Amino acid sequence: GSRQARQASMEFHGCGEGGLGEVAGFVAVLPSVSIGNVAQLAVELLVHNRSGLRLAGHLSHAALLPFVGPSEPAADGWNTAGKDDPQPLLTSMDVFVDVKNQVLLLQQRAPCRKRLREDFRRDLVAWLVASKVSSVILLTGCDASQRVDADFGDPLKYVAMTPGRPLEAAAQALGCSPMATPPPSESRPDGLTLVGGGMSRLFLKDCQQASLEVFAIVYFCAPGDNAGHAVRMAQVADGLLKQRGEQDKATADADSMSMSWRMPPSWRLLYGSLTDPSLW
């Protein structure tokens, strides 16, 4: 029993000189492994484009499938190893930190074992609570074929578990609208339905029960090349983070929406070469 309990806990393993450090009051951003991988792609764009981030370490959990791979250069050089030094390795779940702007960024690169998904979700929430972050921004995809009429139009929506908080006001300033909530049912008393969203619906409920402010950015998509959709999601997430910083809000909006987002080198030709326009 005790062995299983240890396996199910979330453990942080620091790397580099700084480690995680004190993150109380930071805002945490993380993806839900969900349809189209749009949330993970958006986090990857944030990693490669937001200045000030550094790789603090990795999270391990018995639920996470093993993964390890080489990193690639990021815009601000968070992997600042010397030319003769190996670049940091990336794992199933990496933790990046931006001390200046008080941002904690989690990237999940591998799915969870089905029988341990609930343990993973609850332990992740417990780890965030223990870290004393001020709020959580969850990025998630949602099945575009399951939209209700009110959600047609802009495929990017938000879910505010605590209405009226600053994150909701910031999202509205960025031109985002709330996701429509279907009528409550026996299985969904709150009406919240996120088909294809992975752990997102239950994660939002767990954060709410833990009195942890949580806000979700939802993108209605389908499997396939969602790199363009990820840019839009990353723009909104970046705008939310900048609005809570020292910048003027109007300037933050303009910066996030107009900046040129650098795609990670590994995304090149992911779906083959571009089609020759003369064919059409």
What does this structure look like?
The structure is a single chain. The chain has 280 residues and is an alpha/beta fold. It has helices at 2-7, 38-49, 117-130, 166-173, 200-209, 227-243, 249-258, and strands spanning 11-14, 27-31, 54-60, 68-70, 89-91, 93-98, 103-108, 135-143, 156-160, 177-178, 213-221. It contains seven helices and eleven strands. The strands form two sheets. Strands 1-3-6-7-2-8-11-9-10 form a nine-stranded mixed beta sheet, sandwiched between helices. α4 links the parallel β9 and β10 (177-178). α6 (227-243) runs antiparallel to α7 (249-258). The protein is globular. Mean pLDDT is 84; it is low at 1-6 and 80-84.
Number of helices: 7
Low-confidence regions? 1-6, 80-84
Distance between the termini: 63 Å
What is the percent of helical residues?
25-40%
Q: What's the Cα radius of gyration?
A: 19 Å
> Which strand order does the major sheet show?
1-3-6-7-2-8-11-9-10
Quick gist of this model?
This protein is α/β, with parallel strands linked by helices. The chain is built from seven helices and eleven strands. The radius of gyration is 19 Å and the shape is globular.
